Amino acid sequence: MKSTLFITGTGTGVGKTVLTALLAEFLRRRGLRVAALKPICSGGRDDAHILHTALGGTLPLDQINPWYFRAAIAPLLAARRERRRVTLAPVLAHIRAHRRRFDAVLIEGAGGLLSPLGVGFDSRKLITALDATPIIVASSQLGVVNQVLLTLEALPAGRRRRARVALMAPPSPEATASSNARLLRELTGRPIRQLPWFGQDFTPGKVLAEPRVNRTLAALMG
Predict the structure, then answer these.
(1) Catalytic residue among 2, 16, 38, 206
(2) Cα angle at 75 between 71 and 76, to 5 degrees?
(3) Which residues contact 221 (CB under 8 A, 6 or more apart)?
(4) What are the pLDDT digits (tens) for 179-208?
(5) Distance from C-alpha of 47 to C-alpha of 64, rounded to nearest angstrom
(6) Structural domain spans, the chain
(7) Yes or no: is domain 3-221 CATH 3.50.50.60?
């Protein structure tokens, strides 16, 4: 198995890091050599630390997250505040170097699909350049149907056909949660995977003790 999966989302705080960490642990348990990268982040490195833990220390933190900025705003703007520039070529080179070493590479974007990550590029451009399979993560609450449809529409046609969708339950489920997946399946004609709320201090190892979670992740991986 050689695969490149790009975990993007309908926005920030929707569960991208949770899903990336779960997939990293899930694939490692199946004997695969896995890299989980969050190349660019702003507002702290908590997400990168979670991925570092999920990988069992396989990769140093600075390889998981080589570009990080203090301000909790779009990475492009956060970099400007620090008088720094992130361009596409070195980010692609960093990811491709890990693709040569690992069976599966998970790449977590920052913010939503079109959030500016650096000078002239966003997650959509990375997905296209890497020929990666997109996984769209969204919080299953009011408005998610529109958000997922817009994100799918923004993908290039070839990537859109391969895209997978994961709905993450919010801390306090809403009345619309049970119908969101059904409606998205109807409108998109594709499977919609759902995962429950795991709490603030979840650990992938404990979560993967639940057979239902394992089945969902296996289905998401195809």
Answers:
(1) 38
(2) 115
(3) 23, 26, 27
(4) 999 999 999 999 999 999 998 788 998 999
(5) 10
(6) 3-221
(7) no
